[in-house]
């Protein structure tokens, strides 16, 4: 018991230390909540189980799957709710059922939806997979009593402002992949879009022009980082001027479409 608690205490300290390295000073409530999450669910920042946004903790899909594996979940069943889906408009609704053990008959059910209005512009076209992930996350949170929202369930229209905190110098950012606990470049850009209420389509067109590529996905990581830095500075200094600049891409977007 003592040995287990000691190990858990070290894990809590490591989580708090890494969180401070990644996001700066933690408020007392955030630090206390992190200790509770570490002790109760053994969630780890180092392996990407948690994200801190706006001073609040969010669990990740990977973290939920690790909890399920730890408790020997016997299966997860998913299926589209076809009567609620509309493939033509990329709207999908999924149902997920988590079976914790072999004695489970009904399981724990969760639903998830996704359409172009509530996903990042960088995963446009992947709404089906996102809806399934959100459904699985909700079912897992119910099954294992996880009382905090998952990152993947956050919609693109979330109104409150993000608090990214300072980046960790020793953790590289990759445009297409995830890092241990730092938001990916595409997630940082999505957060900026939500924070300053920008038009995602126009931002995407501006980014491609800035990077000199046909699409943003074809740009190098360094170029994307530079664009995000430029966009953030422009939005902070003069959002109205930035909006005017973005609007200049409206015609080209209409022609391209």
Walk me through the structure:
The protein has 257 residues and is mainly alpha-helical. The chain has nine helices and five strands, in the order ααββαβββαααααα. The chain has helices at 2-23, 28-41, 61-70, 127-143, 185-195, 200-211, 221-237, 239-247, 250-256, and strands at residues 50-53, 56-59, 75-80, 92-99, 108-114. The strands form two sheets. It has a three-stranded antiparallel sheet. The protein has a two-stranded antiparallel ribbon with strand order 1-2. The chain is flat and about 60 Å long. Residues 1-10, 157-182 and 253-257 have low confidence and may be disordered.
Instruction: Give the strand order of the largest sheet, numbering strands 1, 2, ... along the chain.
Output: 3-4-5
Shape: flat
Category by helix and strand content: mainly alpha
Number of helices: 9
Average pLDDT score: 79
The span between the termini is: 63 Å
Counting copies of identical and different chains, the oligomeric state is single chain
Using only C-alpha atoms, the radius of gyration works out to: 20 Å
Helix % is 40-55%
Regions with little confidence, pLDDT below 50 for 5+ residues: 1-10, 157-182, 253-257
Order of helices and strands: HHEEHEEEHHHHHH
User: Largest sheet, if any?
Assistant: 3 strands, antiparallel
The counted number of beta strands is 5
């Amino acid at each position: 018991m003592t040995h287990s608690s000691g190990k858990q205490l070290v894990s809590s300290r490591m989580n708090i230390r890494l969180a401070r390295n990644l996001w700066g000073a933690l408020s007392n409530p955030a630090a206390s909540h992190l200790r509770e999450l570490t002790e109760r669910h053994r969630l780890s920042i180092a392996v990407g189980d948690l994200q801190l946004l706006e001073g609040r903790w969010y669990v990740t899909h990977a973290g939920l799957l690790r909890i399920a594996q730890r408790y020997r979940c016997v299966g997860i069943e998913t299926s589209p709710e076809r009567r609620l889906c509309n493939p033509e408009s990329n709207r999908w609704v999924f149902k997920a059922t988590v079976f914790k053990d072999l004695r489970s008959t009904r399981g724990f059910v969760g639903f998830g939806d996704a359409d172009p209005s509530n996903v990042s512009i960088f995963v446009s076209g992947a709404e089906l997979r996102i809806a399934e992930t959100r459904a699985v996350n909700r079912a897992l949170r119910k099954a294992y009593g996880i009382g905090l929202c998952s990152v993947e369930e956050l919609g693109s229209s979330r109104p409150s402002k993000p608090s990214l905190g300072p980046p960790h110098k020793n953790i590289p950012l990759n445009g297409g992949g995830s890092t241990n606990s730092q938001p990916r470049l595409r997630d940082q850009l999505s957060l900026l879009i939500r924070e300053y209420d920008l038009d995602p389509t126009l931002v995407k067109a501006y980014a491609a022009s800035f990077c000199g590529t046909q699409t943003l996905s074809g740009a190098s990581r360094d170029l994307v980082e530079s664009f995000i830095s430029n966009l953030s500075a422009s939005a902070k200094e003069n959002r109205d001027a930035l909006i005017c600049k973005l609007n200049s891409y409206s015609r080209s977007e209409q022609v391209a479409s």
